[in-house]
Design a protein that fits this description.
By secondary structure, the chain is of the alpha/beta class. It has 2 domains: 48 residues; 207 residues, Glycoside hydrolase/deacetylase (TIM Barrel, Alpha-Beta Barrel). Strands 1, 2, 3, 6, 7 and 8 form a 6-stranded parallel sheet that branches. A two-stranded parallel sheet has the order 4-5. Helix 4 runs parallel beside helix 9 and helix 8 runs parallel beside helix 9. Bound molecules: zinc ion. The site of zinc ion has 5 residues, from loops.
């Protein structure tokens, strides 16, 4: 046993030890390199995540006007030329001249409703752009405002409540207008400048609520950067129920060159939807072009009786 103990290690033994130590060092080095890579990749990932999150927060939470614009599939508000339709008191360059080319401004009041999508499909089929003066009467249909906008139509404000009590005072009127403005802003990203008074500017029903209110409001809305549009032709679907044939006949009974056509987008206005193809086909056959209202469109005002 003693001899064995005292025996010096062979050269093979030492070579093995050196090899082992070298292998150990190599392993340690590989581990260090690996750790370095993992940490670097981790740091890059964290930086990326922070950058992405900050972008997301800026786009969504930081700008309340943007979610709907994102939903609309538009990269940002600057890319949408209709963003210039936002209410702006500094713009006063309205076009009060009548169009000299055959034009139909097809306008729908009182929507959105269960009929909105049917109307949009018909308009798409004929390549026609229209204007929707909207209300908040059917909250379940609210998203159709964004859908109409996405399909290239103009959105205008009609009224939040559609109650003639809005004509009791200037305050009442603007409170109602601001409420529908906020709903539309949620859908299309801005408050549009185009409006239509319930009953039109010529309505006399407002007399029961406040003498002279239409004279006041017609001035005040312009001061605040809005513009209002009445009509010179109507389908006649506003008062009670009419047949599709009657609606079409009413809509086409005009020799105006520039037609501001009033129709309704409402729950019980099925015949308007039915009449729409005939109305569009006949106007197109007569050489008219359909246009959605924009800032350069002909402004049409009724006389004021109150
Ligand atoms: Zn209405």
């Amino acid at each position: 046993m003693a001899g064995k103990k005292g025996r010096p290690h062979s050269s093979e033994y030492w070579a093995r030890r050196v090899r082992k130590r070298q292998e150990l060092r190599k392993r340690q080095l590989r581990r260090k390199i690996w750790r370095f890579f993992v940490m670097t990749a981790g740091a890059v990932f964290v930086l990326f995540a922070i950058w992405g999150l900050s972008r997301f927060v800026r786009e969504i939470a930081g700008n309340p006007a943007n979610p709907s614009v994102v939903e609309l599939g538009l990269e940002d508000a600057e890319e949408d030329p209709r963003a210039s339709f936002a209410v702006d008191p500094s713009f006063q360059n309205w076009n009060y001249e009548k169009d000299t080319e055959k034009t139909v401004y097809l306008t729908f009041d009182d929507g959105p409703s269960e009929n909105t999508l049917k109307i949009l499909d018909i308009l798409d089929r004929y390549g026609v752009k229209a204007t929707f003066f909207v209300t908040a009467q059917l909250p379940a249909c609210e998203s159709y405002i964004a859908e109409a906008y996405r399909r290239g139509h103009t959105i205008g404000l009609h009224t939040y409540s559609h109650n003639y009590g809005i004509y009791a005072s200037e305050e009442n009127y603007f409170e109602d207008l601001e409420k529908i403005g906020m709903i539309v802003e949620r859908q299309i990203g801005y408050v549009p400048c185009f409006i239509r008074f319930p009953g039109g500017t010529s309505n006399e029903a407002s007399k029961e609520y406040c003498e002279g209110i239409m004279s006041v409001l017609s001035e005040k809305v312009l001061e605040r950067g809005y513009q209002y549009y009445d009509w010179n032709v109507t389908t006649g679907d506003g008062a009670g129920s009419i047949t599709a044939e009657e609606a079409a006949a009413n809509a086409l009974a005009t020799d105006e060159t520039a037609v501001m056509l009033l129709a309704h987008d409402g729950e019980k206005k099925e015949t308007t939807v039915e009449a729409l193809p005939a109305i569009i086909e006949e106007y197109q056959a007569r050489g008219y072009v359909f246009k959605a209202i924009d800032r350069s469109s002909m402004v049409l005002h009724h006389p004021i009786y109150n």
